[in-house]
Amino acid sequence: MLSVKGIFRKGAAFPEETIEGRENQPVIITFLESNEIDEEDDWDELIRLIEDCVINTGIEDLAHQHNHYLYGRRKKMNEHESEIDPIKALRGSTRGKKLTEKLLKSRREDLELEEAKRKRR
Predict the structure, then answer these.
(1) In this predicted structure, what is the pLDDT of residue 32?
(2) Nearest-angstrom CA–CA distance, 113 and 118
(3) 120 located within any domain
(4) What is the number of structural domains in the chain?
(5) Within a domain: residue 20?
(6) Phi/psi at 8 (nearest 5 deg)?
(7) For residues 108 and 88, what is the distance between their CA atoms, to the nearest angstrom?
(8) Would you list the DSSP string of 1-14?
(9) Domain housing 68
């Protein structure tokens, strides 16, 4: 369903925008009372109110780090930071655990299951 604003004048409805590909399609025309609130006007008013209330604090990460500035909590890390270096954490962590053999065995089991499923079909 498509909703289009327009005006009714001299027995005909005139849309405010061009409507393509809807020739001879049935429509429902709803007449709005002049005192009904226009939703777009409400959004425009809200945006104006927000813009009027904007205060430049000079703190670029205020929204993201508001708990730090309000309550003194530690700053959150952004997506590019980490407390632990993942490379250092992984380096040497698999020694003696035969990780390669385990991965190959797991892959072999996956292939065997896939082959068994194909045979059942």
Answers:
(1) 81
(2) 9
(3) yes
(4) 1
(5) no
(6) -105, 120
(7) 30
(8) -----EEEETTEEE
(9) 37-121
Question: Which residues pair with residue 12 across a beta bridge?
Answer: 9
Rounded distance, CA 34 to CA 67, Å?
46
The arithmetic mean of pLDDT across residues 96-108, rounded, is: 79
Q: How far is CA 58 from the centre of its chain?
A: 27
Q: Tokens 């813009």 — which residue?
A: 51
Each residue of 91-100: pLDDT tens digit? 666 666 677 7
Residue 117 lies in a domain: yes
- Confidence at residue 84, expressed as pLDDT on a 0 to 100 scale: 64
